[in-house]
Amino acid sequence: MVQNTYFMEIITESKITINFDEGPNIITQEQALVHRDIKRHLQNHISYPDNAEEVVTGLKTLCEDENCFKKALMSTVLSKSINSSTQENIENKIYQDSIFRILLTVECLQSDIIDLLIENIKIETSKESEDTSWLRILLHPLKYLPFIKNEEDLADKMTQALEGSNYTSQLEIINVLPDIIPDSQHGKIAITLCNLMDSNPSLTAAIVDCLNSLELNDTTKSRIQDNVLTIITTNPSADTFPVLFEFLISDNTSQGITNCISKLRPSLDTIMSSADDNKINIQSNKALIVNNLKSLMLTSRPLREGVTHVINGIKRHADHKPVDLLLLILLYNTGKNGKTTAEIVLKKKIKSGLFRTLLLDKLFSNYFVPEIIKEFLGTILDIASSLLQHQREDSLHSFAETLHNLLFNHKYIDRVQRQDIINSLVILAGINGQKYASSVLNILLSFSQNKPLLEEHTLQLMSLLELLDSFELKDVSKVFDLLCGLTCGEKVTNSATGFKDELHMLVRKQLSSNKKKIKYQGIVSAIMMIKHIAETAEGDQSDRSITEYHNSSDVSTLPSGISREAAQLLKLTNTNTLNNPEYLGLFYDQLAFLLMTTLNLDKHFLGWLFESMTNDFRKIYLTDTTPDSLNDITFSLQYSLNNPDDVDTPFGVNIAELTMKQSHTTSIMTLSPLFRLVRLLHEHDLTAIDALLGCGVVMPLVQKIDDFDTHQIKHVIDCLFHCINWFRELVSAFVREKSRQIRYMVLERISHIIHLEETLREYLNLVPDHVLPRSYFDSSKGNEKINQKNEKMKPPPKKKSKTSPTTQTLNDTTVSVATQGSKPGNRSNKSSPTKMRRCKINFRELDTDTILPLRYSLKFEEFNMSTTVSLTQQPTLNIKQFNFLVRDVVEKSTALTKQNLSDLSHFKVVSVEDYITDCVYILPNIMKNFQAINTALAQSIEQCHDVIDSPDMFSSTMKDLRSSFGNVIELISTLLNWPGFQNPKNSNLLDNFLKALRKDSSASTTDERAIELSRTFAKYFKQCLCLSSGTHLVDILKALYIINPDNDIKKKIALVSEKLLMKKWYNSNGIKETGAVANAHINTLITSYLDGISVEMLCVFANSMEEEVTGLISKNDHLPKLQSIDKGNFHVLFRGVCHALLEGVKSEVVSLTNNEHLALWKNTALTMQGLITIAKHQENKTNLHIFLKKSIAILKVFLSHGIPILEIMLRSKTDDVLEIFKIIQRSTRFLHHLCCTSKVAKDLSLISYVPQFRLTLESLLVRVKAALVANNCSSAFWLGTLKNRDLQGEDILTQSSIGSEESSSRLQNEPDDALPPEDTDEEIEEGERSEGEENGSLSDAY
Known about the structure:
Region (Disordered): 778-838, 1296-1342
Structural class: mainly alpha
Radius of gyration: 42 Å
Mean pLDDT: 81
Largest sheet: 4 strands, mixed
Strand content: under 5%
Keywords: Isopeptide bond, Nucleus, Ubl conjugation
InterPro entries: FANCD2 (IPR029448)
Number of domains: 5
GO molecular function, one term: DNA polymerase binding
Strand order of the largest sheet: 1-2-3-4
GO biological process, one term: double-strand break repair involved in meiotic recombination
Helix content: 55-70%
Low-confidence stretches: 84-88, 786-838, 863-869, 1295-1309, 1319-1342
Shape: elongated
Number of helices: 54
Number of strands: 12
């Protein structure tokens, strides 16, 4: 019996009561006293230490009773009462260690008791049971032992128990191993766990979690991390990824974490892109992974830096994965610094075309689950809002719009979350007035494609009406387009009736207002409301004319319903605009825009509108008689193209009389808007109005402009302006007609436009204070004065410019308004040609269809149209017509691709994709004509023996040729750089575009075509005679490089840029190109030339610059090799070299051997020395500012990447390292002198960098001193206080302004033209500026 054993004797004497009933075992004294008594009794026994075996034997006997065994493993209860077994005395229990635990703390018993426990553990784990509760009880006494007699033996026994256990038991044992195994055995047990992980992958997560809790040395941990990395990359699992990833980054170096992230990206992308989202466990695993990454990013700075470094290092868009966007979202969520970093990286990637909307589609399709959407909705909205807060960044806006649309229409977004999305946009629209409204409203309008979802938020969107006062007119139009689309129309529910009534009341109030701005708002609002009222669900597909539906202008004859409702509102709007031509012009333009943008308008309404507007136009503007003279100006019918036999009664457009007679009801200002409206109503059949194309116009008869006084000249100018607008609308109306007779007449009208525009600009120089009428009435933007009042006219040029022959008209008796206005003796020739081009005149826009005449062949001979046109003869273009049309296409392409459109331009209805598709259709013909121009240019250059400043290079013919060449190059550059080509859905369009550029191409893929075209365009540098053409040529090569990042294309970019920089540049008048615009072009060429150049090559280039810069003395001096660089723009080249050095160092320093690091930093130090010499020779404020700014950034890179390597190499390459330190010392001394000089000169732009330089220099001193001392080279280091000297090395005796005039004058000697803005992120973080530091003297060293 166990009661009579020696074990029971020891237990009893130690105040332990074994309870054989239901209650727990009880101790009647403190646990420490129990331990003391057991140890004392054992040691005082005569048979010690053999008596220990007898105690263990008694314990084993006790354990034969399962109930007693379990109680011995469970906690005891402290009760000092004698009758401790009663329930009443142990109600307030004080739990103590179990009997096994107490005995394990006795050294002589520990090994045997551990054996007893392990034996029972093995028995339990050998059973095929899922219940591990008993195993957990057996393992508990072994945890956290105060000492272990035989640590290795315990580890071996636990290993044996682990290896022989079933799966569930192994999980239980692995979970408690860190609590049982002592630190000295962690390495050994870790190896066992790794082997077990290889043999049983299902234990991976539990093992890695265990390994995270073990104290391992670097070697063991590195080996284990490699194994884990192999597992996670070869067989990624959503279940195990969080714990594996946490193990990989824990206690890892920054470089190690970066490598891990780089290798784990594909695995994480595979896990997160799993499309089987219907399974709850997959969704929960994704949410768990994201939350785990979020927590790790919040706590681990190296992880944040690693993520940034990996994403920044990807240079091809095809290499990016949606996981990169997810990681940036998580980084954005980590705080202020993470937010700033994520924004910079994201915007840089989007603008460079590396992040495309396809990534967003994939991210939202498979990555996001409800938990992630809910958690990060606010973060994503913040990111989208920040992208919208960048003016004129189309790529960012397009990305933000896609992001908002994907959010709004996502399957896991509920109504409350959509409300948050809309609320975020409405708030953003109200920030800074007009700044972000347009982009926000475009996004809200895109939401209307899912109308049922958006209708739920109509009340919320009605709050936009409160912001109307701060919106531009185009934005007011968008607001009403949005709201009326939700509240007006056939399919709108009855619940929207109240909103519709509210909008109608607001429109009536706006129309009745006397304030111009509010009246304008009322007009555009009314048109938008009419659009949605008159819009039918399905259009009438019949071929019936709209006049067959309704042929009366009386509103009362319209059928009741949407037709009459829309007509009544339109009649109300017309009535409120009749007395003001600007209001009426806006009304007509907006109504025309309505016809262009709405396909399914009610036919009865259109029939009524057709009759009303056609009658108004015929009654107001057409005349069959020549009006009497006004203000001593005689009128005549001019520019008539109609054959007298083809018209019953000759008629014309009465421009002159209506221009000179001021009338509120019949104003010439509404001629073009009303005709545009009328021709759109006749769009399906222009036969009824085709006589207008050839009809003449009543214009002033001008024989000699000098015979007119100033007031009369202004009238003539206004007539010319309205005539040009009229002809432009005619061209837009009839350019698509297939009749060859009409095509010839369209080309003749284009010639008239060209001639009239030249004449208008010539006359404007006679009255520089004259303000032209408005062409459009949708904003405050109008035509400005050609010169400012206080601007003096420049003297006439010495050279005589050749005049182009006057274009003849069909009617030989017609006299042009300026046939004699260009004689040498006339007053009109007193203005400089450059002055005539200084002001852009805002004419009526030509339709996008005016690209069609460019399909005609180009003839350099002037074509004179006769009265009889051969119907078999194909129309041709002369060089002026070709140049005019291409220039117009360039302007349209720029406006469309960059979304830089006027307030309510009708081009907004044109899709960029459709427009580029039209361009692709015409482009082969343009390229054919371009080849002819290119050949003519090459021949002319050859005839001038490549002397580009020869007088023959600036003839009238050469001006046309160089202008046409430049326009075609700019057109290709503009279209090829369209951000939409980055979207995979436009890949076919891009391929077709590249095919059109070269029809004889033998390439079969887009990448091959890009390489082939780069070789073709690289040959055109010689024909670039103006600087802008050169930069556009380089832009074409850059766009091709984005399409196919081939090294051959990159080399051609650098080569062409170099060839262009080697040329001198003159404008069309033979004057050297200078100024801010020229500097911007030069900067583009320099950036392209130096992009990606190695630091070693840059060192050679800086040395050559150092030699050549000595020749830049006078203003006209230029560099011997790069002849486009002169003294005036040398600062642009200097900035480019400094920037290239910084970028080269940052890119090369990442992956170099130690010896390569030495070479890199030596070349960097030598290049900085060369730049210092150059800065001293070309001393001006701009160069010094650039050098200081870039040098601080380079020194920071040297501190973070250079010094650690040099410390290692100092012992083996002492002389080389010391040489680098000495060269950098000279640079820091110059920077110190520069800072001192800036403070004396009180130059705030330089002084702002002094604290940063001081902090950087002090860090550099400490690091260099520590490195030298650690390597026993302290004799090479000497620390002292530098004297404050200026850039010439003279002592500065005081910090006051005394004696500072000379320094100040030197620093103010900066170039006349502004430096082009940098297109890079700031190298120096604002947060690193220590503005609170005193600007005292700086220390220097070694």
